[in-house]
């Protein structure tokens, strides 16, 4: 993880890349406003700003943008009941004694059926832990090409209506994992951690592991908690999507007049798999600048489960 000065939302997303669900959200968003087909951007504070909803033709028809050029294909929703604690690759879990591992104040407040007490910590760098209440709901669209086509057709109009995208870029959400209740803790410094109690005596730390109720140690700070209300439709904890950036083209740069835009894979300012969708001419901005619009898929992974953390102590099993 980066230095202590890194914003916690960025540190959290970076540290949880070992999981195959996409990007982790430090502030879980309501599914109602953040779901497959949502288009918007994250500002300097990490807050989500919606621009358009592409999930339905009826919703996009009331905006100044043209419709999605292809029919969207939605995958059947999935419900997952086995979702154990999610931790960063630098975090380890240690099972503690219920008698010696917790304070008397916390012990007095715990229900009698608490079966296990765990200490999540990191030694070499920062760490993170995500706790969710089952079931988890997984929703997604099958393909990203319709969304790329939509941005290609509406790139100039997006700048005209929302100039903020020149600075913050644009996301189109293609998949989400949501829950009714969750708790998140992330720390930048090494040698820190949190204590958590679980109802079950056996806690699987991994992608598909037993899940249950939990209780935090009152001595630990930094917990971010979210609980959905009826209108939310759940709180999103992971998402996949396509990220778009408007890159300024330096004055005097010679551009080829090929009809097909050049791919800028390996551009140091871009990410892995970055491609150029369209070139916007001098009419796009007030000062006559030119832009190339690049896109980078930041999706779920469909194979493997990534690293689940450092090896557990006291012969605990890792999945």
Key features?
four-stranded antiparallel β-sheet; 5 helices; single chain; 319 residues; disordered C terminus; nine-stranded antiparallel β-sheet; mainly beta
Describe the structure.
The chain has helices at 8-15, 57-60, 104-109, 145-161, 165-168, and strands spanning 23-30, 38-42, 48-53, 78-80, 86-87, 92-96, 116-121, 127-132, 136-140, 170-179, 181-187, 193-198, 214-216, 224-227, 235-249, 275-280, 290-298. Mean pLDDT is 81; it is low at 254-271 and 303-319. It is 12% helix and 33% strand. The protein starts with 7 loop residues before the first helix and ends in a 21-residue tail after the last strand. Strand 2 (38-42) and strand 3 (48-53) form a beta hairpin.
What class, by secondary structure content?
mainly beta
Number of strands: 17
Strand content: 25-35%
Helix and strand pattern: HEEEHEEEHEEEHHEEEEEEEE
Rg on CA atoms, Å: 22 Å
How much helix is in the residues?
10-25%
Main sheet summary: 9 strands, antiparallel
* Morphology call: elongated
Query: Given the structure, what is the number of helices?
Result: 5
Through-space gap between termini: 23 Å
- The parts where pLDDT drops under 50 for at least 5 residues are 254-271, 303-319
Mean pLDDT across all amino acids: 81
List the helices and strands and how they pair.
Blueprint: H1 8-15, E1 23-30, E2 38-42, E3 48-53, H2 57-60, E4 78-80, E5 86-87, E6 92-96, H3 104-109, E7 116-121, E8 127-132, E9 136-140, H4 145-161, H5 165-168, E10 170-179, E11 181-187, E12 193-198, E13 214-216, E14 224-227, E15 235-249, E16 275-280, E17 290-298
Antiparallel strand pairs: 1-15, 2-3, 2-10, 4-9, 5-8, 6-7, 7-12, 8-11, 9-10, 10-15, 11-14, 12-13, 15-17, 16-17
């Amino acid at each position: 993880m980066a230095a202590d000065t890194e914003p916690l939302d960025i540190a959290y997303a970076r540290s949880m890349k070992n999981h195959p669900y996409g990007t982790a959200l430090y502030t879980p968003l309501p599914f109602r406003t953040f779901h497959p087909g949502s288009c918007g951007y994250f500002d300097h504070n990490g807050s989500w700003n919606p621009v358009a909803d592409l999930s339905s033709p009826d919703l996009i028809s009331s905006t100044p943008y043209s419709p999605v050029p292809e029919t969207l294909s939605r995958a059947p929703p999935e419900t997952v009941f086995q979702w154990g604690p999610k931790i960063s690759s630098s975090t380890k879990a240690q099972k503690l004694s219920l008698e010696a591992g917790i304070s008397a104040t916390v012990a007095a407040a715990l229900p009698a059926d608490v079966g296990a007490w765990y200490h999540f910590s990191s030694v070499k760098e920062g760490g993170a832990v995500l706790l969710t209440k089952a079931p988890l709901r997984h929703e997604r669209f099958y393909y990203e090409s319709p969304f790329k086509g939509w941005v290609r057709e509406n790139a100039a109009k997006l700048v005209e209506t929302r100039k903020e995208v020149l600075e913050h870029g644009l996301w189109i959400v293609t998949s989400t994992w949501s829950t009714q209740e969750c708790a998140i803790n992330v720390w930048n410094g090494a040698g820190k951690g949190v204590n958590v109690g679980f109802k079950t005596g056996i806690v699987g730390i991994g992608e598909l592991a037993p899940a249950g109720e939990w209780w935090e140690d009152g001595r630990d700070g930094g917990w971010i908690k979210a609980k959905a209300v009826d209108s939310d439709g759940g709180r999103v904890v992971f998402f996949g999507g396509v990220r778009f950036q408007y890159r300024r083209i330096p004055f005097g740069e010679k551009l080829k007049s090929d009809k097909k835009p050049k791919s800028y894979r390996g551009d140091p300012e871009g990410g892995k798999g970055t491609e150029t969708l369209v070139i916007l001419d001098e009419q796009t901005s007030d000062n006559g600048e030119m832009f190339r619009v690049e896109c980078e898929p930041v999706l779920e992974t469909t194979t493997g489960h990534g690293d689940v953390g450092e090896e557990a102590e006291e012969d605990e099993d890792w999945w």
